Amino acid sequence: MEVTARAPGKIILTGEHAVVHGSTAVAASIDLYTTITLQIPSDSDASDGLLKIKLEDMGLEFSWPVEKIKDALPDLGNPLSSQPQSCSHESLKSIASLVEEQNIPEAKIELASGLYAFLWMYTSIHGYKPATAIVTSTLPLGSGLGSSASFCVSVSAALLALTSAVSLDLGHKGWLSFREDNLELVNKWAYEGEKIIHGKPSGIDNTVSTFGNMIMFKSGKLTRMKSSMPLRMLITNTKVGRNTKALVAGVSERTLRHPEAMNAVFIAVDYISKELSSIIQSPAADPLSLTEKEEKLEELMEMNQGLLQCMGVSHASIETVLRTTLKYKLSSKLTGAGGGGCVLTLLPTCILLFL
Ligand SMILES: Nc1ncnc2c1ncn2[C@@H]1O[C@H](COP(=O)(O)OP(=O)(O)O)[C@@H](O)[C@H]1O
Ligand SMILES: C[C@@](O)(CCOP(=O)(O)O)CC(=O)O
Ligand SMILES: [Mg+2]
């Protein structure tokens, strides 16, 4: 049995971090993907008894004898793919020791949490079957474009596609697609993976990666959006590496130190996201001209960036991009967890006329 699945990365237009604390955020999927090919031999005699994962872009391969996984995680004997399970502290410790034995190069140690998520989802859904997973990605890792969620969604989709828990319909461009209820299952398993990588994710990244297009997200609930205006974003990668888990934890610590001030910040972000979504979706016959709408969006992005600074997640490299784009009267904000990573700049239609 073999299947290939892919899932997109995302940009967050407004509301990152605050969404973890219950505010509204707006996100859109982008045309960069994580792709996974999963092969599970149907004849166990024909296999080498290993669970392998090949990260092709990095030229890395990791493998574990399934018997060893069984010893480390003995409680997963009866996988129930239709019931997403959270990884307990004990299971995570066992998984960490399985990954530690692989001697990941020090410069790539961040990959460990991706491997934890893979091992958890694989064994929870398929038990101790030998298999090979080959992963490639066009997304930069750890840059705010949701590589972790796109990895988890593609893994979850590939794993579920090879179970009887889902049925696939003929999709578009040669890809099969999941039905809506099956997409929810894909999303729930991916969220369990994101929890292992991020610690305390809001769920917005895996949700937009699973359902695509543009969404509004608040307290685990998604509202699909229909944009009624052109919206072009320039993405600048500062190439400053950072880790979402640490940044999310930093905002929570600041919230514990200054609960009232931070709650006011989160409420302001909620209003910003709601206003942004209503502008983006306002009917074309709206009295506001396109230029007026774009000016409002620019102002909202600037306000959100200021509040992200309040949360302590901006960075000198992000400020440099902000100053540079401002010279051309363009508005920018960080996207994703910040601390480096990517910056979004709105490209208004008047600029595009000159390109
Ligand atoms: N293709 C991949 N293969 C293995 N792990 C991945 C892959 N993509 C993402 N990950 C995991 O996700 C982590 C990056 O997630 P994160 O810090 O949330 O940044 P972002 O989601 O913005 O890219 C990586 O360090 C790795 O553990
Ligand atoms: C900071 C946050 O809002 C988004 C993180 O996105 P990314 O992992 O940096 O792509 C966290 C979350 O919502 O789970
Ligand atoms: Mg992430």
From TrEMBL:
Gene Ontology BP terms: isopentenyl diphosphate biosynthetic process, mevalonate pathway; sterol biosynthetic process
Catalytic activity: (R)-mevalonate + ATP = (R)-5-phosphomevalonate + ADP + H(+)
Domain GHMP kinase N-terminal: 127-212
Main location: cytoplasm
Cellular compartments annotated: Cytoplasm
Any one Pfam family match given in the protein's UniProt record, by short name: GHMP_kinases_N
EC number annotated for this UniProt entry: 2.7.1.36
Biological or metabolic pathway of the protein: Isoprenoid biosynthesis; isopentenyl diphosphate biosynthesis via mevalonate pathway; isopentenyl diphosphate from (R)-mevalonate: step 1/3
An annotated GO cellular component: cytosol
Domain GHMP kinase C-terminal span(s) in chain numbering: 295-347
Gene3D superfamilies assigned: 3.30.230.10, GHMP kinase, C-terminal domain (3.30.70.890)
Assigned keywords, A-Z: ATP-binding, Cytoplasm, Kinase, Lipid biosynthesis, Lipid metabolism, Magnesium, Metal-binding, Nucleotide-binding, Steroid biosynthesis, Steroid metabolism, Sterol biosynthesis, Sterol metabolism, Transferase
UniProt cross-references to InterPro entries, sorted A to Z: GHMP_kinase_C_dom (IPR013750), GHMP_kinase_C_sf (IPR036554), GHMP_kinase_N_dom (IPR006204), GHMP_knse_ATP-bd_CS (IPR006203), Mev_gal_kin (IPR006205), Ribosomal_Su5_D2-typ_SF (IPR020568), Ribsml_uS5_D2-typ_fold_subgr (IPR014721)
Family under the similarity heading: Belongs to the GHMP kinase family. Mevalonate kinase subfamily.
Protein name per its UniProtKB record: Mevalonate kinase
Organism the protein comes from: Papaver somniferum (Opium poppy)
